[in-house]
Amino acid sequence: MAELVPFAVPIESDKTLLVWQLSSGPTAEALHHSLFTAFSQFGLLYSVRVFPNAAVAHPGFYAVIKFYSARAARRAQKACDRKQLFQKSPVKVRLGTRHKAVQHQALALNSSRCQELANYYFGFNGWSKRIIKLQELSDLEERENEDSMVPLPKQSLKFFCALEVMLPAYDCSSPGIGLVEEPVDKVEEGPLSFLMKRKTAQKLAIQKALSDAFQKLLIVVLESGKIAVEYRPSEDIIDVRCKEELHGLIQVHCSPWKQYGQEEEEYLSDFSLEEEEFRLPELD
């Protein structure tokens, strides 16, 4: 059976491992490194988080590990449960469970996470991006000294970007758009600060457009291990751009792509047991 891997934050319980009975000897930082090394061999990891045990429990740590792939999480659970791994005593590993009534809307990955996921499945040279349009839409008022780069108070820098992610090996492309508006502080900041903010806003617009383009792609991992790609332009994933502001700026036309082939505004969700609704499974 094929597995679908979206460019979204993995919040599903079948992609999350709970690891406990970790030794109290090493520091949390050392355990993080050991866990990442041990579990990353089964698949690409989204996060590894280490927490101290509750005060009423024995001294030590437990960890929450998130994979992008449910299949990789299952392999890791079977291979690592009740094994010593990097410590003298065995650890316990279980797939996370969540109350069925709890539902979460998919959160889009930021651009750096999208690139990490694309590099893992497509290869570093398996994809590329092409900027179609990068336009400044800032509402800076005119000033008497036209050579001055100092902005007036209560103004903003606004950039719009349209680009395309291309997967040549899969005969597939995906357009993306991003709109960024950054407030500009008072005159006291000076021209250098303004130039830095302008550069930052431009970069963020490109990053948002790149993330938007990846959201329309779905990685299909076949049983044989081969990779296919599906283009899905109407997927309902949370985005931060304002559609009303983007309307009329640019029209990006896209045709139905083939669905098979070969193989900060940041949406990182800080884990908490109450937020994620995880519970440890009962053991025999």
From TrEMBL:
Keyword RNA-binding attached: yes
All residue ranges annotated as the RRM domain in the record: 15-98
A molecular function GO annotation: DNA binding
InterPro entries cross-referenced by the UniProt entry: DSRM_RDM1 (IPR057652), Nucleotide-bd_a/b_plait_sf (IPR012677), RBD_domain_sf (IPR035979), RDM1 (IPR040224), RDM1_RRM (IPR034200), RRM_dom (IPR000504)
Subunit structure: Homodimer.
Organism superkingdom: Eukaryota
Name of the gene: RDM1
Protein name stated in the entry: RAD52 motif-containing protein 1
GO cellular component: cytosol; nucleolus
Major subcellular location class: cytoplasm
Cell location: Cytoplasm; Nucleus, Nucleolus
Membrane in keyword set: no
Stored Pfam families: DSRM_RDM1, RRM_1
UniProt keyword list: Cytoplasm, DNA-binding, Nucleus, RNA-binding
